[in-house]
Amino acid sequence: MKWNDYGWGQTYDPCTKRNPGCDGTLPAICSIDIVFAVDISCSIHPDDKERVRRFLESVVRRIPVRPPFVQVGIILFSKTVYDIAQLNSFIRRGQLLKVIKEMEMKPKECATATYLALEYAREVTFNKQNGAREGKK
Length: 137
Hints:
Layout lengths: L1 H5 L25 E8 L6 H17 L7 E8 L3 E5 L7 H10 L11 H12 L12
Parallel strand pairs: 1-2
Antiparallel strand pairs: 2-3
């Protein structure tokens, strides 16, 4: 709660100490890097794209987004890949939620290149320079 309100609070790796504030609603989240690859191609209905946006917001609200815990990256794809957030782009949850709310879900070109998105995630997003942490899931 302190982190959300004031930008300070627990900063140690959660796997090294017991967290008495854990309510047990989520499994232990210990230093993981998550990248969402979201298909925004023209074959996806606009209502479904908004459902995905709400899903992303819901997930980000429920996880501890900060370096000792979880880092989140987001890429959108259609015919090309749109880099929305690298793993080390957003230290605070509020910043990431704002980006999710404002991200453009309409592609510039209609096609679906899932292979490009997966390649981009593997080679660019999960790269040490972009915040991927060695030895983390």
